[in-house]
Amino acid sequence: MRLPGHLTSSGNGLFGALHVGSTLDRDGELVRIEGDEAVSHLEGEAIENGTYVLTESGTALYTKKGETTAKEYMLFASGSSSSRTYFCTEIDENEGTYHGDDWSVLILDGYEVSATYIDARGVRYSGNYTILKEGYVKFTSSALSAPLVVTIDTQTGKYAPVTEQYILDGSGSKLLAWVDYTQTQITLPVSVTEIGANAFQNMRSLVSITMPGVTSIGAGAFYYCTALETVVANKLTSVGASAFAYCVSLAEISEEKIETIGTQGFYGCVSLTELNLAAIRTIGDYAFLQALTLKNVTIGSAVEKIGKNAFAYANANGEEGTVLTVTFLGTTVPEFGEEIFKEVAALEIVVADEATKTAFAAALEAYAEYIVVASAAAAA
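Below the sequence we write its predicted structure tokens.
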């Protein structure tokens, strides 16, 4: 299979060739393209998210960063000796490629690759392509107010804007991308159980969202949704890295069943004041860094790890005399990262009893003076 198809120019605008990227020259070697010229051969060199090596049999081996096993891709060429288009097709057909009139580039599903979009007026936009699923591509650019999501005909290469409000994966349970960026309030069907990476990224009109079936939210899903105030998701258990980063208006979220929060999950959420993390197991590094008005956090007994700087600078904007109170319901000391309460204006760590206080004081030496037993905290 080819995924998605060969792109052709049309009067309705086109996806332009990559201006900085990777391609194959006429001799079948990987080169880097800058402008219209191949400036260096890159066989065996890291490109985008991994390393390509060409084989004598005409296939390409691709090793993703952080992995040791290579995947094999077949290469096809068409056209004259003076003008060729190379196609890459993965042999195991789990992932695909994206190519244009005079270039070819390997793209792993869900990864962004730098590229250029040319609209109907001939205006060029620099940004990134992401393959959502077969036949669907999302283009994002800082110069565009919303992502451009299009369907691709894998046989002809022609494309058109999607008519759907949102794009789901093949199972119908994972939301890959939201299309209409003008909406302020959204309610998803209960059949949607997962929000994909970057699905609502930079949707600055969104004020509230209800997700009755969602259990997992991917990395960057609501990144920079600056107007988002309320998230209702009563089944939510997993929050990915930077999922709500810079959601500066976020004041309410259904957090009671969340078990894992990724790195920078709520970074810069300056409107959060209360958190009941009753089911939490893991809080990633910088998860609530710069949650400037945070006052009360309850952490359940199942917690296993809290990453470095997890609550750094929390309550830094608190009113005079206010305290960030963090209550641990369990008696087992979790793994603590470095400086988890760095630069907190005023801090109180509440634990169940004297024995737990001693154990926590040993694990949190820098904050030992702020640890109190629950009964004493209540009396105060």
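Confidence is low (pLDDT under 50) at residues 1-48, 74-111.
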